[in-house]
Design brief:
Radius of gyration: 25 Å
Structural class: alpha+beta
Number of domains: 1
Helix content: 10-25%
Shape: globular
Number of strands: 19
Strand order of the largest sheet: 5-6-7-13
Length: 351
């Protein structure tokens, strides 16, 4: 659907031909307090551009004004708001439940994975170490070792052979996720990872929640502005809920973010705006103990210096980068990345 901007001119005042011998383009000037009866006003009216496009009937390619491309899943809408329509600035889309997401370009899948890193046909996540400000990123580690070090995909069971009975090996955790053994969970994680790789490789990008996941205590989670229900859930609960978020939408697959996706997002954010420091002091755009800023929560409030205040999602433009809110601080964010035999990795560190 095309939207036409219409300008309608309405003339006000009198004696509009008082200086008719002057060309129309002539620029005269008076003080702001002048109220001569020869001075009138001209008003323009514009038809408002809709906030969102119509839902895409099928998954289709989108081209922005700079010629950059992204894919829009069927049933999702593209933002029409200024600053949210260009891919290099963070293209924003909205799902059928009004959750919002931002497109993360990934031109070369080998920047995100260790091809066949686990075994033939089974890829591993390529993780990064960032310089202090984020200007450089170094692949590390470059090989995958099961049950050891930073890696994905993998299970954690409390021992270095992967067959322990803690964490993923706990029978209650397994049952809650619908798995009968750590073997079946490990297999499913690999399937999920390889499916993600196939999608990112084909479409040259993926979407990330624009806001920290909300409504965590409810059956269905969201990615919406102003949500306060964004913490106090286990990794296992969130893994399952994020996975089921769009189970009813055939055009997408949802899930908890992988470490390699987080790192790709960091690279894209810094490339777009090098003032957004990644691994060093990100207090200029994050919610940390040692900063103060205003935010919206049923009116304007002020986060005090040296106070720990969890703010609603997207409640201040200060904490936005690449149209994604609260990447730095506010709450930690679980990932699917593993470390040694007992940890899942948290990102968006609180300082």
């Amino acid at each position: 659907m095309k939207f036409i901007v219409l300008a309608v001119s309405i003339v006000g005042g009198s004696y509009n031909d008082f200086i008719g011998n002057m060309p129309v383009a002539y620029r005269d000037y008076y003080t702001m307090a002048s109220s001569f009866n020869t001075i009138g006003y001209r008003i323009v009216l514009y038809i408002s551009v809709p906030d969102w496009s119509e839902p895409y009937p099928v998954t289709a390619q989108y081209t922005d004004s700079a010629g950059k491309k992204a894919w829009i899943p069927a049933g999702f809408k593209v933002s029409q708001k200024p600053g949210e329509t260009k891919i290099d600035q963070g293209l924003v889309i909205k799902g059928p439940d009004d959750s919002e997401f931002v497109w993360i370009p990934a031109a070369n899948i080998n920047d995100m994975i260790i091809p066949n890193g686990v075994s033939a046909g089974n890829h591993a996540g390529q993780l990064y170490i960032f310089s202090y400000n984020g200007a450089t990123s170094t692949k590390s580690p470059t090989t995958y070792t099961a049950n050891s070090g930073y890696r994905e995909p993998d299970i954690i069971t409390g021992n270095n052979t992967g067959d322990g009975t803690l964490y993923d090996g706990n029978s209650f955790s397994l049952a809650g996720l619908g798995y009968t053994s750590t073997v079946s969970m490990r297999k499913e994680l690999q399937i999920e990872f390889d499916s993600m790789v196939a999608s990112v490789n084909y479409y040259k990008g993926f979407y990330v929640g624009r806001y920290e996941t909300g409504d965590l205590s409810k059956a269905e989670v969201v990615s919406k502005r102003g949500n306060k229900d964004i913490a106090s859930q286990t990794w296992y609960t969130m893994y399952q809920k994020q996975k089921n978020m769009y189970a009813y939408v055939s055009s997408v697959t949802s899930g908890m973010i992988w470490g390699c996706q987080w790192d790709q997002m960091m690279n894209v954010i810094y490339t777009s705006d090098n003032t957004k420091w990644i691994s060093g002091d990100s207090s200029s755009w994050g919610n940390y103990l040692n900063v103060t800023f205003d935010y919206e929560d049923n009116g304007t409030k002020t986060k005090g210096m040296n106070t720990a205040t969890r703010i609603p999602t997207g409640s201040t433009e200060r904490n936005k980068a690449y149209n994604i809110y609260d990447v730095a601080g506010n709450v930690f964010e679980w990932t699917l990345e593993s470390f040694h035999n007992q940890y899942r990795i948290l990102r968006g560190r609180l300082l």
